[in-house]
Amino acid sequence: MKVLSKAKLETVLNTLNENTEVFVPMQKGVQSGYFTWKSFENGKDELMLDVLNVYHSPKNVVLPQTEKMYGIKSKGVEVNIDKTYEDNHPTLIFGARGCDVKGILAMDDVFLTRGYEDSFYKARRSNNIIIANACYNPGPNCFCNAMEVNPVDPVGADVIIRDAGDVYIWEAKSEKGEAITAQIASLLEEKDAKSPESKPFKQNVDYTGVAEKLKGMFEHPFWNKISEPCSNCGMCTYVCPSCYCFDIQVKMWGDEGYRFRAWDSCMYEEYSREAGGGNPRGAGKERFRNRFLHKLEFYKERYGTPLCTGCGRCIVVCPNDINIVKIIDAVKEAE
Amino acid sequence: MKEITNKIQEIATRLFNEGKADVFLAWEKQGEDYQVKPYFARSIDDVKNIVFNEYSIHNLSNALLKLRDGHEKIGIVVKGCDSRGIVRLLEDLQIKRDRLYIVGVSCPGMKDPLVAGRNKSGFNKIQEEEGLAKKCQDCIQPNPVIYDELVGSEQAAKLQGERFAKIKAIENMTADERYKFFEDTLSTCIRCYACRQVCVACNCRTCIFDEMKPQWVGRENNATDNMMYHIVKASHMAGRCIECGECERVCPVNIPLMLINQKLIKDVNEFFGPYEAGMQYIEGAKPAMSMYKEKDPDNFL
Q1: Containing domain of residue B126, as a range?
Q2: For residue range B1-17, what is the model confidence (pLDDT) as tens digits?
Q3: Quick check: B49 contacting A, CB < 8 Å?
Q4: Which of A272, B103, B117, B249 is 20 to 30 A away from residue B175, measured at CA?
C-alpha cells in the first residue's frame, strides 16, 4: 500500500500548494479552524491533524463567509452587471474528518441538484479536492455514525489518509484523487502499515424514526421548554459544517458597487423578516424550532439524509448548553 | 454549593406555594457537572431540577428580557455581577421591580463550563486552565447589590493587582500599533452576535445591527464591517457595561472583548465619575452616559 511518511508531510503540502490553494486544520494563535497552508508560520502556528477536529469547519473553502458575486455599474435608471466573480481557482482541503466531508456533500445537494445549479458554488466546488483524515477515535460529543457518516471510510473524499503512527496510509478514491497521488508520487512510499483500531462511540444516538416523528411535532409543547435557555445567537450555525444559509446584499459607492453574499443564520430575527415588516419566526422559539427541524426533518425529507453530520461542534461552543443529541432524545421520548 | 442549592430550592418552593412566583430563574444540570444551563422553573414539580454549582456562571439577568413583555411574577437567582445586570434593566426601564423576587447569592467565583467542555471536546492539543473562570478573576463585586433575600456568606472580591493594567498597556501603544492590534483581533470575528445576545445591556427591542432601512453596518465579514460592529456596540456600552464578562466568555473566536468594555469603564469613571455602572439601584437614577450636563468635559472630542 501507499504511505506518506509524516516526516514528509510538510514537503507534500508545499508540493500540493504549488498549483492549488491548500487548506489545513490549524491552530493559529487563539483561532482554530481551516487556514491556508500558505499562511502557516513555523513556530507560531500548529497543524492540527492529530486532534479530533478543529473548532471551525472547512465549509468556508467552498462557501466563503463573504463572497463577491457581481460588479455593478448604474447609469440613470439603467443598472448593468459589468463583472461576474465566479471563482474556480483550485483548492484542496487536507485532513477533513468524515463529518465535515458530509457537510460539503450536503451543500452539493443544495447548490447543485434539484433543477438549479448555483454557478458560484459550482465554480468553487468543481476545482476543489478533499483529502479526508479517517477518524478512529470518536470524541465525547461525536455521533456521526447516527447521522449516516462513515468516519473511517467517508464518502465524497478524493483521497483518504489513515494515521498509522509514523506514516499516513494513502488511498486515492477518485480520479481527482489519482491525479493528486500522481503529482506527489515521488514522496509516497510502498510499505505495509496497519490502520488503527476503531474505538467505540462514547454516546449512543438513535436517529431512526426521528424525521418521521417530527412531522407531527411542529406544535408540540416540548419546544417551549427546550428552547428557553437558547439566547438566539448564531454561533451554532456558523461553526456547523453543513449550515449553508446566506443573504445577498449590495454595496454601492455612487454609481458603482458590487453584489455579494454573506452567511446568514436562521437564529437571527432579521433572517425571516419580510418586506412588509411581518415575521413568521418572530419569536426565539420559532427560530430555534426551525433550526432543528431543518437539521433533522426538512432536509431529510428533501434529500434523504439528515443535515446534521454529528460533528458535535455546536454542542461544544453553545454558551447555554443546547445539545442536539439531547434534543434527538427528547423527540424520541416525547408523547 | 449543595447547601446553596438546597436553600434556593427551599425558597423557590416557598415562592410557588405562596403564589409569589409564576416562574423561577435558576440553573439546571444535565449530565456532567459542567453541563449547566439557565433554567426556567414554572412549578413546584420543576424545583427539584434547580442546581447551583461551580459552573452556574451564566448571567441570568439577561434571561429576564424573554419575560419583559409578560406579567408573570418572577423569582430569580443572581450572583454579584448578575445583580448589577438587574440594576441595568431597572434603570433602563425594561422590567418592573415589583415583578421580581431577587434571590442573591454571594458568589465564591465560578468555573467556566465552556472551558471544561472544550477541554473534553478532543479539539484541544493543549488543555486550558480549568480553575477560576477568567472573568471571575477580574471580579470586583461578588456580593449581590440588590436582593430580597440573601444566600451564602459574604465573599471577598477576586481581583488581584491593578484593575486596568491590561488597558494601560494598550493605552501605551502608539496609535498605529493600537489600530493594528484591534484590526487583527476584530478581523477574526464571525459575526455570530453571541456577545450581543448574552449582554444584559444589549436590551434594545430592535438592535441597530438588525435594522435594514437604513442599514447602519454592512454584512460583509471583513475588518471594516467587523470593526464597525464592535465600535458601535462598544460605544453603546459606555457607562452601561456591568462587567459580567459574558461577551468575552462566550466568544467562539476568543476576541478579548472586555478590553474594549474596560477601557470604557475606565474612561467614563475618569471623565464623568466617580461612577461604576449598576452598583446600586435608586429609582429614577440614570446611568452616566444617558444624560447631558453643560459642564460635561469635552476636551477629548
Answers
A1: 1-160
A2: 899 999 999 999 999 99
A3: no
A4: B249
